[in-house]
Request: fold
Amino acid sequence: MPITQAEASRLARRTGMKQDDFAVVNDGVLTLLNNAQTRACVFLLTDSSDLYAEGMCSVYEIRPKGCQTYPYVLDQDDRAVLDEGCPHRSQFPPPPEGTDMVLLNLEERIVREGSAD
Reply:
């Protein structure tokens, strides 16, 4: 999950973790890490690597915007759609009106930060 530097700073402050413990830069984009054992986000509380395993977000109140809007993602035409990779996509309605603009704005912030490095 791509995140902004502001989101990373907030996560570091609130969790007491170092940014390197939960995020890495991939192709100029700051991205949340996955837990090596569970293959899930480092902030997802779960002991299982099963795709359908239950878990709880340990940073839910301060989760990044991309996490808040997931499973809605942009397609190649910059329209909000349900992520094909989400195993629970059938449980979500079509993207609410305005989701594409929220995602475009988030993408712009992430890309701008990545190109500033």
User: Anything to note?
Assistant: The chain has two domains: 1-61, 70-111. The helical segments are 5-15, 65-69, 99-116. Residues 47 and 66 are 23 Å apart (CA to CA). The chain has three helices and six strands.
